[in-house]
Amino acid sequence: MSKRKIIKIDEEKCNGCGLCIPNCPEGALQIIDGKVRLISDLFCDGLGACIGNCPQGAITVQEREAEAYNEKKVMANIVKQGPGVIKAHLEHLKGHGESKYLNEALDFLKENRIRNPFEDEPAKTHAHAGHGTGGCPGSRMMDLRGNEDGRYEKGPLPKAVSRLRQWPVQIMLVPVNAPYFEGADLLIAADCVPFAYAGFHEELLKGKILLVGCPKLDDSAFYQDKITQILQSNNIKSVTCAHMQVPCCFGMAHLVKSAIEASGKKIPFDDVTIGIKGDKLK
Question: Residue 202: which CATH number?
Answer without folding.
Answer: 3.40.50
